[in-house]
Write a structure and sequence with these properties.
Elements (H helix, E strand, L loop, with lengths): L13 E8 L3 H7 L9 E8 L5 E8 L5 H10 L4 E6 L2 E7 L5 E3 L10 H4 L6 E7 L2 E6 L5 E3 L9
Antiparallel strand pairs: 1-3, 1-4, 2-3, 4-5, 6-7, 7-8, 8-9
The structure holds zinc ion.
The site of zinc ion (ZN) has 8 residues, from loops.
Length: 155
């Protein structure tokens, strides 16, 4: 074992999401719906990182992320690096940018919000970064939630 040895094995084709803040990896897996797919997934939690003190990392075989999925990932890991891998080589590195809004993905934590009452209304949050904190503001009930709040998140 040398220090250069990677803690997670290489993949032939697929996507590597690196530099996820520790603790957000499982949330991102849920958002990308990889937990109930048949794709081969490698996840590393609480790995040592030079850029972050600890990081999570996800490798998904044979899958590329759409721009919408990249935006969704950015809500939880704006500093993540997305590597698109083909034949074991990095083809494309994408830096994420925090989207200004996110629709139809997360449930509003406010139980009285109209998004829970009306079947035709899907959730819509505007996103603002205040320093390192990311806040989600429900478009309908206008309540503000911290991104790291763990309740009622995904549908
Ligand atoms: Zn709401």
């Amino acid at each position: 074992m040398t220090s250069k040895m990677r803690s997670v094995s290489a993949i032939r084709n697929g996507t590597v999401i690196d530099h996820i803040p520790a603790g957000q990896g499982l949330q991102i897996m849920r958002i990308l719906e990889v937990t109930n797919s048949d794709k081969q997934i490698t996840i590393g939690l609480n790995l040592p990182s030079q850029r972050l003190s600890l990081k999570d990392l996800i490798k998904i075989e044979n899958r590329q992320l759409s721009s919408e999925e990249l935006n969704q990932t950015a809500v939880f890991a704006p500093q993540a690096t997305i590597n698109s891998i083909q034949q074991f080589k990095i083809q494309k590195k994408a830096q994420l940018t925090l989207p200004t809004y996110i629709k139809d993905l997360l449930a509003c934590p406010n139980k009285n919000c109209i998004t829970h009452e009306e079947p035709g209304i899907t959730s819509h949050f505007n996103i603002v970064a205040i320093g390192k904190r990311v806040q989600l503001i429900c478009y309908y009930c206008e309540r503000q939630f911290d991104r790291d709040q763990k309740i009622l998140y995904t549908y």
